[in-house]
Amino acid sequence: MRYESITPRKEHIDLIILDVVMPGKNGKEALDRIVRTGPPVKAIFVSGYAGDIFIDKGVHSGSVDFLQKPLLVPALLAKVREVLDR
Fold it and tell me: What is the rounded CA–CA span in Å between residue 71 and residue 37?
C-alpha cells in the first residue's frame, strides 16, 4: 500500500473550531491571522471558562458562534450544521 501525504489547502477549509483560550494566541487572534492569510473561513469558538473571559480575549459571545465546554456531541453537531448552512 502506498501512502501519499495530503496537505490541507486553505481554500478547502470550510470551518474551524478554536478554543477561546490557547497558549501563545487566543482563538480570536488565531482566527484573525488565518483570515489574513487566506480566504474567509467560518469558525466556532469553544471555552470552558466563564463568559467574562471572552471580553478579555477579544471575543464577544453574542457576536460569534460559541459552545460552552464540556461539549455534548449532539450540540456540537447541531452547531456545526447551523454554521455551515449559513
Answer: 29
